[in-house]
Amino acid sequence: MQSDALNISINDVTKKYGDFFALKDVSLEVKSGEFLTLLGPSGSGKTTLLMVLAGFTRPDYGSVKFGNKEVVTTPPHLRDIGMVFQNYALFPHMNVEQNIGYPQKLRGKSKSEIKESVSEALSIVKLDGLGHRGVGELSGGQKQRVALARAIVFKPQILLMDEPLSALDKKLREEMQIELRQLHDSLTMTTVYVTHDQTEAMTMGDKIAVMNQGKILQNGTPNEIYSKPRSKFVGSFIGSPSMNFIPIDSAIEKGATSIFIDGNEFNIPEQHEGTIADKNFIGIRPEKMTLSENQGISGEVYASEYLGTRNVLTINTEVGQFKVRVSKDIKVSPLENVKISFDSHSGIIFDGTSDKALQSAYM
Ligand code: ATP
């Protein structure tokens, strides 16, 4: 089953509910054949943006193009996109085959065409032989496979998914993540996938668009988002344990190349292209910090979590609480005094006011 993928261009899309901006000037390009995850906290606008793409929500302003075609006023049933929702949304009075064949029936396909495409879709989602089952006789994973088969049975060029795996247990979710990704690759569709789970976004997406408060804060590969976050929000939202932030606003002088923290000199890292200007925090990932014998920021161990292959230490210092990821062989106990060191080249400069600046953009 092959289909041509279409690129998606979203330009300056705004959606207001009363005075509230659910989406504010959102622009985003999804390349043909790309798997893009929309990631953000609850209420950040992910579902609203997906509904704008599907045509169920009409934006107040802005443009949505599939390929070269403007679709912002096109009703959902004429957009020819596949959709999968969190709650499956299967028709309870139809069996598996009838559910999957429904979009083909709506398109006026003949009985033999429907039969053939349903059988192909069943095989793709690995449900051969279950076509005559009632949907009430399926497990959660099987139901989601039926929903997926129904979304792809008419070979859409665009597939939209809204937290499709969140009702499944962890093991099944991880298996389905791999299957969904393989399915996307084999069908060469353009996929937009909503999730609030950063691990899911990192493992599945070619690109991640991080949203907060109705805006896209950054769109990049998982590696770019992790290693070069453009704002403190993105730096703290991605990565577990979360990135550490060292405040440097009072310590820094214009043009300075290094700063002193607790009597230790640290080079100020270079600002990545696109990172919001001003220099109020250095962000350091927990795995880039180490415990050192003599020099470093003094701290007291608050907690030590053993995670099998590594330890995560929570350490209180005079410049804040830090998470430090160390080897499982390093044993330290709560209340122990330690010194923390880091290679400042692995750090990122952030503007502490950037999140406020983003908020003021909503006024
Ligand atoms: P979640 O992960 O919790 O599903 P989300 O990122 O998908 O969140 P949206 O559902 O897009 O968020 O909602 C974005 C904001 O718009 C929320 O504050 C929500 O309350 C608001 N909103 C969404 N739909 C409506 C509506 N029909 N009327 C009023 N406000 C709405």
Q: Can you tell me the overall shape?
A: elongated
Oligomer category = single chain
The strand count comes to 20
SS field, number of helical segments:
9
Low-confidence stretches: 355-363
- What is the first-to-last residue Cα distance? 48 Å
Strand content bin: 25-35%
Query: What are the secondary-structure elements, in order, as H or E?
Result: EEEHEEEHHHEHEHEEHHEEEEEEEEEEH
Distinct small molecules: adenosine-5'-triphosphate
Largest sheet: 6 strands, mixed
Give the % helix.
25-40%
What is the average of the pLDDT values? 87
**Class per helix and strand makeup:** alpha+beta
Task: For this entry, give a set of tags.
alpha+beta; 9 helices; disordered C terminus; binds adenosine-5'-triphosphate; 363 residues; 6-stranded mixed beta sheet; 5-stranded antiparallel beta sheet; 20 strands
Give a structural overview.
It is built from 9 helices and 20 strands. The chain has helices spanning 46-54, 96-106, 111-124, 140-152, 170-187, 198-204, 222-227, 232-237, 354-360, and strands spanning 8-17, 20-30, 35-39, 61-66, 69-70, 81-84, 158-162, 190-195, 207-212, 215-220, 244-247, 258-261, 264-267, 281-284, 289-291, 297-306, 310-317, 320-327, 337-342, 348-350. Helix 2 (96-106) packs across helix 3 and helix 2 (96-106) packs parallel to helix 4. The protein is elongated and about 80 Å long. The protein starts with 7 loop residues before the first strand and ends with a helix. The site of adenosine-5'-triphosphate has 11 residues, from helix 1.
